[in-house]
Amino acid sequence: MNLSREGKIIEVGMAEMRISSAPGVMVTRGLGSCVGIILYDPIKKIGALAHPMLPDIDKARVKSNPAKFVNSVIDMMVKEFTSKGCKIHSLKAKVFGGGHMFSAIPYDSPFNIGIKNVNKVKEALNSLKIKIVVEDTGGNYGRTIEFDLSTGLVKVRTLFHGEKRL
User: Fold this and answer.
1) Long-range contacts made by residues 84-90, C-beta under 8 angstroms, separation at least 24?
2) Which residues belong to the active site?
3) Is residue 1 in some structural domain?
4) Residue 55: is the preceding peptide bond cis (ω within 30°)?
């Protein structure tokens, strides 16, 4: 992606969420079993990127960082958008990661955090009637994503599976 001179690069770390407007690129690295969740208002060109690690804050002992959990970070994202005058029905979602990173854990195991994260994202977004327009999840490899706030396009980079724009 070519970043314009006025554009900014916004790094989003593990268990973090950021929201910004165009121009700019939001980046998160090292999505393994974690998920990268993008919500985007294509009319206002406002986007948010979250990198939660676990599916459900309700099952956690320590709840001090809601951005660490899929269900609570989606709530945070929606509140940020509505505070900026965005309508929930205008939001589009893109979901990445949720890989099966530990071969010692069977794919259908309740300890497969990647699939649990992806399922929780779908459940939470479906309950809000936010449509997932792009999904690149699963597999046994990590991802880095770069989200262009001006176009809404996402570049997905992987070590052994190449690069794609979605």
Assistant:
1) 84/19, 84/44, 84/46, 85/44, 86/41, 86/44, 86/46, 88/128, 88/129, 88/130, 89/129, 90/41, 90/42, 90/43, 90/44
2) 34
3) no
4) no
The number of folded domains in the chain is 1
For 65, counting Cβ atoms within 10 Å of its Cβ (0-12 exposed, 13-18 middle, 19+ buried), the class is: middle
pTM of this structure: 0.92
Kindly give the confidence (pLDDT) of every residue in the chain, 166 residues in length, as a single tens digit, with 9 standing for 90 and above: 444 445 799 999 999 999 999 999 999 999 999 999 999 999 999 999 999 999 998 888 888 999 999 999 999 999 999 999 999 999 999 999 999 887 777 767 777 899 999 999 999 999 999 999 999 999 999 999 999 999 999 999 998 888 999 8
Residue 4 within a domain: no
